[in-house]
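Appendix C reproduces, verbatim, an entry submitted by the partner laboratory led by Prof. M.T., so that reviewers can inspect both the input and the predicted structure.
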Amino acid sequence: QVQLVESGGGLVQAGGSLRLSCAASGRTFSLVAMGWFRQAPGKEREFVAAITWSGGVTVLADSVKGRFTISRDNAKNTVYLQMNSLKPEDTAVYYCAAKKYYGTIRNVDEYTYWGQGTQVTVSS
């Protein structure tokens, strides 16, 4: 089992920045990648960013390219999502997730472990 704990959400004005953190514990050696997803009210959960655990390969959704960065600190078993130039449409609950098998890194159904979510609200 793997446990994920997110932190760093909050309220920010449009154009501002936030950094989300996701600390993993447990059987982290079984993981191949970690990702961030978000879900706005009335919408489906959508992919935001992901990073492979060993090689550090990153993938970003088109809607956040150039504004968000995903990184990891393997020594701390922590993944970060740096969010800059935030827009009101970025408002959502952000979830950290981890997967055990390679496949389609953007596919929400392929992630086994999930954090509790952290609210990000961007005011206009």
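The longest strand covers residues 18-26. Additional entries are available on request from the coordinating office.
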